Amino acid sequence: xxxxxxxxxxQQLFAKSSIDLNQYKPAQMQRRITxxxxxxxxxxxxxxxxxxxxxxxxxKDFIDYLTINVTEFFRTPEKFVELEDKVIPELLKRSPxxxxxxxxxxxxxxxxxxxxxxxxxxxSARHRILATDLDIEMLAKAKQGVYTAGELKNIPPARIAKYxxxxxxxxxxxxxxxxLVEFQRHNLLLDRFETGFDLILCRNVVIYFTEEAKDxxxxxxxxxxxxGGVFFVGGTEAILNFRDIGFQHYLxxxxxxxx
Length: 259
Ligand SMILES: C[S@@+](CC[C@H](N)C(=O)[O-])C[C@H]1O[C@@H](n2cnc3c(N)ncnc32)[C@H](O)[C@@H]1O
Known about the structure:
Strand order of the largest sheet: 6-2-1-7-8-10-9
Structural class: alpha/beta
Number of domains: 2
Strand content: 15-25%
CATH superfamily of the largest domain: Vaccinia Virus protein VP39
Radius of gyration: 20 Å
Order of helices and strands: HHHHHEHEHEHEEHEEHEHEE
Bound molecules: S-adenosylmethionine
Largest sheet: 7 strands, mixed
Helix content: 40-55%
Distance between the termini: 52 Å
C-alpha cells in the first residue's frame, strides 16, 4: 500500500513537473518529502499531491525543496584557483574561444564566476557559457544577476569593483559579464545534450541521484565534451569509475577526455 502510494505519487509528479523521482535515491527522497508532508499534516504521498495541485505556493516551495538551490561564487575557492591558473590556460592553448557548460547553475553564481575568469584571462566576446537548470525560478534570478554583499563573499574586492555595479544595497553583474552567459532551462535526466564543449561543470547537482542515473549522466557528459575537454565536479563528488567511462584523471575533481 505504502509502495503503491509512492509509485502513484511519482507518476503524478512526473506528469506535472517532468521530475522523475525514479532517478533519485528513494530513501533520501522519501525522507525529505515525508518531512515536508508532516509539516502540512498529510499522511500519504497521494494526499500530498492533491495539496500540491491546489496550492501553487506550496508546489513552488516543494520544487525548491527538492532541487536544493544553494550555491556560491567560486564555490570551493581552492578548486577555482586550479581552474583559473591551470585548467583554463591549458584549454585556451588549444582553442582561443571556449565553449563551456555550467550544468545545474542555480542562481548563476557558477557561470558568472567562469565569465569573470575568462574576461580576466582571455577577454573576448566569442567565448560562450551555457548555463542550465531545471528550476525556472532560479534561472530568472540568474538572468537578473543581482546579489547581496553576503552572496559575493568569495569574490576579491578588486573583482567586485570591476564586474559589478551598485544597485541599492545589492550589486548587479555588469553587462559584459552577462554577455558571455546563455541561460536555458534543461533537465539533466530528460533532455538532449549539446556537444562540443571544452569544459563542463556539474557540481553539487547529483547528490540525490541514484548511482545508475549518475553513471548514465557522466557518460553523456563524456560524449558532450570535445577530445581534450575537461569535466569538473563538486568537492565531494569524485568519480570512482572514471576510467571505465573513458576519462583520464587530470587533477582531483577534474577529469579529462583523451585527445
Ligand atoms: C546545489 S545547486 C548547485 C549549484 C552550483 N552548481 C554550485 O555548485 O554551486 C543544484 C542545482 O541543480 C539543479 N538541479 C537538480 N536536479 C536537476 C536536474 N535533473 N536537471 C537540471 N538541474 C537540476 C537544482 O535546481 C539546483 O539549482
